[in-house]
Structures are given as structure tokens and as C-alpha cells.
Specification:
Helix content: over 70%
Strand content: under 5%
Largest sheet: none
Number of helices: 9
Order of helices and strands: HHHHHHHHH
Mean pLDDT: 78
Radius of gyration: 17 Å
Shape: globular
Number of strands: 0
């Protein structure tokens, strides 16, 4: 059985209440999830205290602790994983900002958002802007989430959202321009 098919089968079994499926799934997807976590952590400041392993562990705690989503396939799982990791990082950033009593630099998000793997992004400002974008265009927000936070290519993102790569590329560029403008206005 191929890895993709095996992952989908295990996800369906897990969704249907087979807790042993989660135990079998973890070693199969762990390496790819660590890569996804490392990709997301590249956007963080250099002195960030959260490591890729801790981010993946937090992901599984959240997935195992809540209701199990209606998994469709491997791509759906990794899309949700990217979203949950984003939520973990944003919560971590909010705690860090609270400790600094309102610190944070939205201009870092504006400058860094143009780069594929930028460091020092203000995730709180980006998350707020993404929420506004999601209210206007949920598809564009999802594409940004997958590309920026998930580290997926245009082709991989197109497969996850079930749109053509050309459409995803166009929506990605529009969303990036909108977010750049939104973050720049917020920084001003």
C-alpha cells in the first residue's frame, strides 16, 4: 500500500474511532510534520523558544484532545496541520507580546511577508490581517495559510484546495498584495 493511501486509510480509521490508527499514523507522518514545523519556524525571530518537535507535539495534543475532523485524505490532514500550527505559533506570539506589554513590530511583518522564508514576522499582526482577509475572501486566506504557514508549493496548494495551479498562483499574488497593503497601513 502506498504511503498516501496508507495515510488516508489510517485517517479514516482514526476519524471512525479507532485510536490505534493514530498510533500507527504518527510514525508515518512525523517526519513530514517536523519539516512543516521547521518551515513555519523559519518565519519566527531568531531567539524563538519553540522548537519544531514541540510544535509537532502541540499539534498532536490539539488533534487528539478535540473532536476528530472528518478527514478526507492526506492533503486535508496536512492542510489542517498547517492551520493548527499557525494557531499554536500565533498563541505563542501573543503570550510573548503580553510579556513584553504590547511589544511587537508590524513593520517587520510588512517587510518579511515579501520573502518566501522570512524571519522576524509579527505573527500577531499577520494573523489579524488574515482574519480580515478571510472575511472578504476565505479562499485567498486559505491559500496564504497553506503557502506561507504550510510551506506548500503552488502545485501542492492547488491539489489541496482543488483549483488549478494558475488560479492558485493568481489568488496567491492578489492575497499577498492585499496583505502587504493591510500590514503596511497597520504599521503606519
Amino acid at each position: 500500500m502506498s504511503s498516501r493511501r496508507e495515510i488516508t486509510t489510517l485517517l479514516v480509521r482514526w476519524r471512525d474511532g479507532d485510536s490505534s490508527a493514530l498510533d500507527a499514523l504518527v510514525p508515518i507522518v512525523y517526519g513530514e510534520l517536523r519539516g512543516l514545523a521547521r518551515s513555519q519556524l523559519r518565519h519566527e525571530r531568531r531567539d524563538h523558544t519553540l522548537q519544531a518537535t514541540a510544535l509537532v507535539n502541540e499539534l498532536f495534543l490539539r488533534l487528539a484532545g478535540g473532536g476528530v475532523p472528518d478527514w478526507q485524505n492526506r492533503a486535508h490532514f496536512f492542510g489542517i496541520a498547517a492551520r493548527v500550527m499557525r494557531q499554536v505559533l500565533v498563541a505563542h506570539a501573543r503570550r510573548h507580546l503580553a510579556q513584553k506589554r504590547g511589544g511587537g513590530d508590524a513593520s517587520a511583518a510588512v517587510d518579511a511577508f515579501q520573502l518566501p522564508h522570512a524571519e522576524g514576522i509579527d505573527l500577531h499582526a499577520l494573523d489579524m490581517a488574515l482574519e480580515v482577509l478571510a472575511a472578504h475572501d476565505p479562499d485567498q486566506a486559505r491559500i496564504v495559510e497553506l503557502r506561507f504557514f504550510g510551506g506548500y508549493t503552488i502545485k501542492e496548494t492547488a491539489a489541496i484546495v482543488r483549483r488549478s495551479p494558475a488560479t492558485v498562483s493568481r489568488e496567491w499574488e492578489l492575497a499577498r498584495m492585499w496583505l502587504y497593503r493591510e500590514l503596511r497601513q497597520g504599521a503606519a
